[in-house]
């Protein structure tokens, strides 16, 4: 599902730090220069400390990544944008997550994402999201055709290797990132996940990137957050926050943040 350039221009104007650079990313996307749009939006995201602006940039990163056939990067970016407090940014990011799920045939996930998008969007956008949610739900309800006759059992498949582009999606609902002790060293948090499996997959997917940047191997920590346990992926420990921020810019996952480490 593709939003028009007009809708993207609304996105560029709605944040607390509207800049010409973000406008340039929108114009590049509108002109079909998706690689340029991706580069400019990533630069905006890396330079700003404002979460709302980073989430707006993440939406553009996701859109450009979809056009460049980078589904893993798009999923990461839309996961960050979907947690925006702005219902337009959040709703459109959720709708894009639904579109990605449809491309992979994950109809249940698509129905959930489109339904969440419809609850945030108004007018034609909300109506379209509701219609897509109904279509995806109908696909889930379709009976699965059985074989015409018994087939011989296939050999046991080998365990599938995780696809580096198929990054896990962080927790879709807003969750406060767990903070460490005030005197703990700084670290780069590379995602908060509702399952240990998803967290470990993220750690595996960014391990090569961390190694090339001269950073240590990512680690997975189980920590309490609100009324549940979550798993945080951390990369490195730094005595200086500025050095941690410099390291964060070397990790391309869209939901990174510099926080106090929870490692013991």
Describe this structure in words.
Helices cover 51% and strands 11% of the residues. By secondary structure, the chain is an alpha+beta fold. The chain folds into 2 domains: 5-141, Alpha Horseshoe (Serine Threonine Protein Phosphatase 5, Tetratricopeptide repeat), CATH 1.25.40.10; 186-260, Sporulation related repeat (Alpha-Beta Plaits, 2-Layer Sandwich). The chain has a 4-stranded antiparallel β-sheet, with helices on one face. A hairpin with a 2-residue loop joins β2 (219-225) and β3 (228-238). It is globular. Mean pLDDT is 80; it is low at 1-10, 160-167 and 171-175.
Poorly predicted runs are 1-10, 160-167, 171-175
The portion of residues forming beta strands comes to 5-15%
Q: What's the SSE pattern?
A: HHHHHHHHEHEEHE
Provide the CATH top-level class of the largest domain: Mainly Alpha
SS content category: alpha+beta
| Overall pLDDT confidence | 80
Our measurement of the CA-to-CA distance between the termini, rounded to an integer number of angstroms, reads 45 Å
How many domains? The number is: 2
Instruction: Provide the CATH architecture of the largest domain.
Output: Alpha Horseshoe
Note the main sheet. 4 strands, antiparallel
What is the CATH homology-level superfamily of the largest domain? Tetratricopeptide repeat domain
Taking strands numbered 1, 2, ... along the chain, how are they ordered across the largest sheet?
2-3-1-4
- Could you please say which CATH topology of the largest domain applies here? Serine Threonine Protein Phosphatase 5, Tetratricopeptide repeat
Number of E strands: 4
| Helix content class | 40-55%
Number of helical segments with 4 or more residues? 10
């Amino acid at each position: 599902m593709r939003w028009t350039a007009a809708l993207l221009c609304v996105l560029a104007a709605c944040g607390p730090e509207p800049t010409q650079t973000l406008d340039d990313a929108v114009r590049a996307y509108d002109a079909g220069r998706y690689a340029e749009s991706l580069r400019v939006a990533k630069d905006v995201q890396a330079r700003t400390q404002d979460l709302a602006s980073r989430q707006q940039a993440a939406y553009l990163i996701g859109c450009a990544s979809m056009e460049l056939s980078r589904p893993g990067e798009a999923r990461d970016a839309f996961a960050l944008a979907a947690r925006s407090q702005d219902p337009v940014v959040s709703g459109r990011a959720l709708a894009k997550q639904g579109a990605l799920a449809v491309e992979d045939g994950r109809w249940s996930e698509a129905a959930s994402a489109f339904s969440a998008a419809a609850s945030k969007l108004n007018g034609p956008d909300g109506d379209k999201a509701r219609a897509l949610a109904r279509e995806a739900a109908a696909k889930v309800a379709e009976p699965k055709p059985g074989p015409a006759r018994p087939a011989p059992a296939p050999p046991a498949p080998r365990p599938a290797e995780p696809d580096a582009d198929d990054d896990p999606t962080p927790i879709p609902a807003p969750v406060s990132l767990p903070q460490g002790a005030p005197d703990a060293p700084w670290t780069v948090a590379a995602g908060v996940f509702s399952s240990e499996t998803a967290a470990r997959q993220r750690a595996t997917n960014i391990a090569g990137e961390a190694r090339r940047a001269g950073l240590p191997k990512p680690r997975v920590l189980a920590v309490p957050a609100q009324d549940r346990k979550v798993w945080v992926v951390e990369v490195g420990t730094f005595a200086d926050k500025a050095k941690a921020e410099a390291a964060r810019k070397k990790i391309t996952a869209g939901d990174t943040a510099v926080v106090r480490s929870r490692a013991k």
